[in-house]
Amino acid sequence: MTLNNVWIITDNQNAVGELCGGGRQLGAQVSVVLFGDQNQAKEAIASGADKVFLFEQPENSVMIEAYSKSIAELLRTEKADLAMVYSSIRGKLMAGRIAAQLATSALAISELKVEDGRIITRRMVYGGAAMRTEKTLSETVVVTVGTGVFEAGPKDETRQGTVTAVNPNVASDGIRVLETRPKQGEVVNLSAAKRVVGVGRGFSAKEDLKMAEELAALIGAEMGCSRPIAEGEKWMSKERYIGVSGVFLKADIYVSLGVSGQIQHMVGANPSKTLVAINKDKNAPVFKQADIGLVGDIYHVLPQIIAKLKAQK
Ligand SMILES: Cc1cc2nc3c(=O)[nH]c(=O)nc-3n(C[C@H](O)[C@H](O)[C@H](O)COP(=O)(O)OP(=O)(O)OC[C@H]3O[C@@H](n4cnc5c(N)ncnc54)[C@H](O)[C@@H]3O)c2cc1C
Prior knowledge:
single chain; alpha/beta; Rossmann fold; 5-stranded parallel sheet; 9 helices; elongated; binds flavin-adenine dinucleotide
């Protein structure tokens, strides 16, 4: 049994495909709220939207979360059963505000299904140590959804849908955008990488990461890390740390090097299909979850692996 009316709200056009894929599985009708232009609206329809509500964004004006009140009104008048908000930083803010307008709460979910007309969600609790299953009772359920929860369906450019331009009732929250600049530094989408090499505090100096980078280059992998490497040592950017407060992988293979395998790291690593771990401590927690474990010193083992791989090229 599916829902009547599923809504998707996203400030990231790249998330439309996956969220529409989920929307089509869960509901008879899929509506998408976009902060973009007519071309993006057409793309959303091709991805599975029946209706697009377009908030055309005048440059340097308001923060999109100021539209939350207008979006909540739309959800109420259109009798939305479910609002799935993409869990970007702004999306999470919006979800909280929309939920408050609808007198409910926003759930950050990692699974969602419909049973007997009710929405059942699963989400991580206790910093990733446990999963909680909840049956939602509110009229409109508000959830935040990240990448990897749903799969995008095939695009169909011939699909028909409606596009409605919304003249938003902008809540006066006292914040105006003065300037928008592209983010400085690297842009990496680790959750899209099929192969990832992750480094942890087993490395004792930044320059030693060259070994891991060499391995990554040889196997065509992206580089990731544990949180202390990004936030403590600052050897790698924050976009590269894996875990409950970082990135969730969807890789075919994750090779962890000198990572202890604490739960906060592993919840982000575990969605990978195959986990290979190298650690010098045979009791390191990472070995409980690894498909292939190698007890050894990375400074001894890695040069040998790299030499073998090079010899095979
Ligand atoms: C609320 C909260 C959220 C958190 N979120 C995250 C998160 O999202 N992601 C995250 O990664 N962490 C997170 N953490 C931190 C997490 O709990 C761990 O502290 C962290 O993952 C440990 O990083 P590490 O494995 O690199 O370092 P360590 O725990 O110090 O482990 C280093 C490992 O390297 C091994 N080693 C040492 N030398 C060598 C060598 N020469 N060769 C081989 N192995 C060697 C050691 O045996 C050890 O197992 C969070 C913590 C909290 C409290």
